[in-house]
Amino acid sequence: MNAVSNENPIEGDADDHLIVSQIVSGQKDLFRLLVRRYERTIFGMGISFFRNREDASDFTQDVFLKVYRSLSRFEGRSRFSTWLYKIAYNTAVNEVNRKKEYKSLAEEDSNLLVSTNETPERILIRKASKQAILEALEGLPERYRLCVDMFFFYEQSYQEIEVITGIPVNTIKSHVFRAKKLLRDKLEAFV
Length: 191
Fold this sequence. Notes:
The chain is mainly alpha-helical. The chain has two domains: 1-103, Orthogonal Bundle (Rna Polymerase Sigma Factor, Chain: A); 105-191, Arc Repressor Mutant, subunit A (Orthogonal Bundle). The protein has helices at 13-24, 31-50, 53-70, 80-99, 105-108, 120-138, 142-153, 158-165, 169-188. Helix 4 crosses helix 8. 28% of the residues are buried.
């Protein structure tokens, strides 16, 4: 997730709740802080679902518009990010049901495994590793990829994934466990 710039040191879940309460109380300009903090993550989710930057950008704007309009209904019983991701997920699922496609967040984040301080040989090894991981991820059933993405890339707990997706916690645990086993089996040949 994007951290808020140095101009404002507000960070973290408690601060999200504070920002939301201030926005609802009339300080509408503070919404930009929430956008700045979460836009990259929401855009990444859009890339995962729509596979192109233009649709992901439209999706991101749509999500933040929905969030802004619904902000007064945020009750603070969960993390703000969980509430936001649920809105984003539901928005994406509704659109994907029309298009029927999904792509793992890992597939789009080209900087995930590559560091600019490495030798060309290390970069090539990392790129080959990334390609093997992407191929293994692509081979997973969609329901497993979704749970793996939310758990590992969006760093959501099983309970948060349940709130976001409506999938029961035990099913999510099972999907993540099975996905890890499938990935391990597929990647053994690479090692």
